[in-house]
Design brief:
Layout: E1 6-10, E2 12-18, H1 21-33, E3 50-53, H2 58-61, H3 66-77, E4 84-99, E5 105-108, E6 117-125, E7 144-147, E8 158-161, E9 167-172, E10 176-179, E11 188-201, E12 203-206, E13 209-212
Antiparallel strand pairs: 1-2, 2-9, 3-4, 4-11, 5-10, 6-9, 6-11, 7-8, 7-10, 12-13
């Protein structure tokens, strides 16, 4: 895994890591050998038939703590209100998307047991996305687009992701995103993990000075 992620600023901040091929291979191998792929469709919005739970296998396959260390780095590095201190980081859900031709995910956000947290996408298999319907604009087949909470003239609120095996993106729960469909017989596989953040109020401001909360 690369030591320093790429920080992507477009109103909010997203992070891009590169995980090892070993981690990718372990996840793919686990997916291929699962006898019972418990569907996750009952709480997901994607128009994808093969979405299945994976949380119980994360500890088994993340032997070098690449996923865990990446989210801890993001929580330590991201802009935040210093009046709070982080109490707990909890991976509350994880699932795999095996996406095929014409399947897609509309614009959506994520959440967990808490409203405050981060989601992530790890690309595991990337097929040929096929010919675009037109040659106008940027190619979109099979790509993910992040939509930051910002706007206004001379501003770019989106970031278009071209999936690459091993690329691991982490972004806030409330960052909207969309996954475009593609053409062809291949399979686009990704692992999605959600991390709840719980925190305590450490300081408050009184008469322009910082005080310990409730004192």
């Amino acid at each position: 895994m690369s030591n320093k992620p790429e920080k992507i600023h477009f109103g909010q901040v997203a992070y891009k890591f590169e995980v090892s091929q070993g981690l990718v291979d372990r996840i793919n191998a686990k997916c291929e050998t699962l006898d019972d792929k418990t569907t996750a469709q009952n709480y997901l919005v994607g128009k994808i038939k093969n979405e299945y739970h994976f949380l119980e296998f994360i500890e088994e396959i993340d032997t070098d703590l690449e996923i865990k260390n990446s989210i801890y780095h993001v929580v330590d590095d991201c802009p935040q209100d210093k009046c709070y201190e982080i109490e707990e980081i909890d991976m509350n859900s994880a699932w795999v998307n095996d996406q095929y031709e014409n399947e897609y995910q509309g614009v959506h956000t994520h959440s967990g047991k808490e409203d405050l947290g981060f989601s992530s996408i790890l690309f595991l298999k990337v097929p040929d996305f096929g010919k675009e319907i037109t040659d106008t604009g940027d190619p979109l087949n099979g790509k993910t687009e992040l939509i930051g909470n910002c706007g206004g003239i001379w501003n770019c609120p989106t970031h278009l992701i071209t999936p690459k095996v091993g690329d691991f993106y982490i972004f806030p729960y409330d960052m909207q995103h969309v996954v475009y469909p593609f053409n062809g017989n291949g399979m686009r596989r990704s692992l999605v993990c959600n991390f709840d953040i719980t925190r305590n109020k450490k300081y408050s401001m009184k008469k322009g000075k910082r005080h310990e909360y409730n004192k």
